[in-house]
Specification:
GMP Synthetase, Chain A, domain 3; 3 domains; alpha/beta; globular; Rossmann fold; about 35% helix; 5-stranded parallel β-sheet; disordered N terminus; 27 strands; 5-stranded mixed β-sheet
């Protein structure tokens, strides 16, 4: 069904819920120490209106850019609403970026003011904020400068006549996560954001009765679409996570009915279960009719996912074996596909119509074709207005007939379902002149319980090789010689299995093992938890090559592994 076109925006929808669901809960925020606060729709919009009044009192031209740097929290969404009400454009900044990147985005976007919220490293972010730059300090922030949000609320009357935003107007500039090169500012209109939310909601029958937990970065298009824009469009309640340590508590509080995540976290959940209940024993128990249903419910309840009616994965390919594992638990994990450049409105798997390893069919009004070089080309009504101050890059991003060049490679099956086969720019050539697509091989590596992260490299080498980061329990077992020998044997056997699938030129020469976890804060993951190939290759490539000279199927790169 095609989304309705009623010229309403997410901001218009928020005003509708302010009237029709005034006393219904909208945002639920942990405050620390076990305290929790919930805003009703009326309370949330009242705060946003007061801050919008403050913004309109500032000497900013209409349609100015206003930036937000903060971890997910209720006030992130309230600040966004206030920016829109005041007639301005929001510019989200990833809360994990270093000072230089923050400064670049503030300057490139021509932002006039910055909302600062809770951060892991305020001192690092602070280095990127010019001394004279206007700052508003959100609740829960540990920033040592800026006007407190609470002072603005107390001193400002609610804005009675918010700016009327038109669908064709610029709503936000989302800077790409920058896995390679300088981030580009993706300009999205109010109309594109509204259409994407309505389209997704209609596909899964989203309503005000749903619940979601917000924990992936709101600065990223995926969370901004699935959580913020959809909650404003359909009126459902949003819960927030306090920290990694309290995540399960926060998840159980939310009891989400809709839950979307990225492969990295779905894999972490799986490894957490397998650390307590090894795979062989789990499968035996699931094969016992009387036990299996009780066990499935217990595992999903332990993960806080027992009420989920739609579970999605996006942002990067997920191993089909991980999807199959969750389905054996009774959770039909469905893949979707989209980009910031089309506000994730591209492809989606649906219950009962999905195919494992595929990201689903295009939305009804989305067109897709595969280019001559295997690149996926998508024409979506939610596509960006262009890259901010980058007309040449914008022109390069589209074909002459309006298809977005995704940079991903893929293929379509007989029912039009899309399978991702790699990234055009990730292809590398071996010394034998053969091209290798690393992503499918990485997915083969990741199905092993001892492996949490994987990167395939080998440009200019006779054969590619794999680099893996161990799962937590595997790192612990590798601390003693006997445990390492046993682990090495398992990895060697797994390598033989992995090499059964690819073409001869894609088979891995060896697997190098590092005991270091790849994280955002050590520069090896993007803010959306994708691996940073260039950073990983720079850190490990040379030492792994030296390990190749030692021979053997498994190479240990550091003593801690």
């Amino acid at each position: 069904m095609k989304p309705s076109v009623d010229n309403s925006t997410a901001l218009d929808k928020a005003f509708h819920w302010e009237r029709s669901r005034a006393n219904k809960p909208y945002l639920t925020q942990p405050l620390g120490g076990g305290a929790v606060r919930t805003w009703t729709w009326a309370q949330a919009l009242d705060e946003a209106r007061r801050v919008a009044s403050f913004l309109q009192s500032q000497p900013f031209p209409a349609g100015s850019q206003i930036a937000i740097v903060a971890k997910n929290a209720a006030h992130w969404i309230l600040a966004d609403l206030a920016i829109w009400m005041a007639g301005h454009v929001s510019v989200p900044i990833y809360p994990t970026l270093h000072g230089d990147a923050v400064r670049y985005i503030l300057e490139h976007s021509e932002s006039r003011l910055l909302f600062v919220g809770k951060l892991d490293d305020w001192k690092q972010v602070r280095t990127g904020i010019p001394e004279a730059f206007p700052v508003v300090r959100l609740p829960l922030a540990d920033a040592d400068r800026g006007t407190p949000w609470e002072d603005i609320i107390g001193a400002s009357a609610p804005l009675q006549t918010p700016a009327r935003r038109r669908p064709e107007e610029l709503a936000t500039i989302i800077y790409t996560s920058g896995s390679t090169g300088v981030p580009k500012g993706v300009m999205l209109s109010f109309g594109a954001m509204a259409l994407a939310a309505e389209g997704m909601g209609k596909q899964v029958s989203t309503s005000a009765a749903d619940r979601m937990l917000s924990y992936l970065p709101l600065a990223h298009g995926f969370e901004r679409w699935a959580v913020e824009t959809c909650s404003l469009t359909f009126g459902f309640q949003v819960f927030f996570a306090e920290s990694l340590d309290t995540f399960l508590v926060d998840l159980r509080r939310a009891r989400p009915t809709l839950f979307v995540s990225v492969p990295r976290l779905w894999r972490k959940f799986q490894l957490g279960v397998l650390a307590k209940l090894p795979e062989a024993r789990l499968q035996r128990l699931l094969g016992i009719p009387v036990v299996s249903s009780l066990l499935r419910r217990k595992i999903l309840r332990g993960l806080g996912l027992q009420h989920v009616r739609f579970a999605g994965s996006g942002s990067a390919p997920i191993p089909p074996e991980v999807i199959a594992w969750y389905r054996r638990l009774g959770l039909e994990l469905l893949e979707g596909y989209g980009m910031t450049e089309n506000f994730a409105y591209s492809h989606m798997s649906l219950p009962g119509r999905s195919r494992v390893g595929y990201v689903g069919n295009a939305y009804p009004e989305v067109a897709v074709r595969i280019g001559a070089d295997g690149e996926i080309l998508v024409r979506s009504p939610a596509s960006m207005m262009g890259y901010f101050k980058a007309a040449e890059s914008t022109a390069e991003a589209f074909t002459e007939d309006g298809y977005l060049r995704t940079g991903d490679q893929g293929e379509l099956d007989e029912q039009g379902r899309l399978r991702l086969t790699g990234r055009v720019k990730e292809l590398f050539k071996t010394s034998k002149g053969k091209y290798v697509a690393p992503a499918p091989i990485e997915n083969l590596l990741l199905v092993h319980a001892d492996i949490e992260q994987a990167c395939v490299m080998g440009s200019g080498c006779p054969q590619p090789f794999g680099l893996v980061a161990l799962a937590e329990q595997a790192r612990a077992s590798a601390a003693d010689p006997a445990g390492r020998r046993a682990l090495g044997g398992r990895l060697e056997e797994h390598l033989r299995t992995v090499n059964e699938a690819p073409e001869h030129h894609e088979r891995l020469d060896f697997v190098a093992v590092t005991g270091e976890e790849w994280r955002i804060d050590n520069g090896l993951l993007t803010p959306t938890l994708k691996i940073k190939r260039s950073a990983i290759e720079a850190r490990y490539g040379e030492v792994a090559q030296r390990g190749r000279e030692a021979g053997g199927a498994v190479v240990w790169l550091d003593a801690g592994s």
